[in-house]
Amino acid sequence: MKSHSIDELLKNNQAWVAEKLALNPNYFENLANGQKPPYLYGTSCSKSTSSSWLDPGYPNRIN
């Protein structure tokens, strides 16, 4: 798998944003409508579940 530099990732993200806005100028506003979670949490590892880092007794399954 090819590794990308942060500059490439940001450039690709900007292109994606521009594409979405060209199709629908309100894309991000519409996406955000109704989303008001009391807490915003997450992890950058798709193998990690919220219970694995919210519950200190949960075994770490990330290798």
Please provide a brief summary of the model.
The protein is mainly α. The chain has three helices and no strands. The protein has one domain.
What does this structure look like?
The chain is mostly helical. It has one domain (6-54). It is built from three helices and no strands. The protein is flat. The two termini are 19 Å apart. 0% of the residues are buried. The model has no long low-confidence stretch (mean pLDDT 79).
Radius of gyration using CA atoms only: 17 Å
Helix residue percentage: 40-55%
Specify the structural class.
mainly alpha
Continuous helix count: 3
From N to C, what is the helix and strand string?
Answer: HHH
Percentage of β-strand residues: under 5%
Count all strands and give the number. Answer: 0
The averaged pLDDT comes out at 79
Q: What would the principal axes of the Cα set say about the shape?
A: flat
* Terminal-residue CA separation: 19 Å
Keywords:
63 residues; mainly alpha; 46% helix
Indicate the topology.
Layout: H1 6-23, H2 27-32, H3 50-54
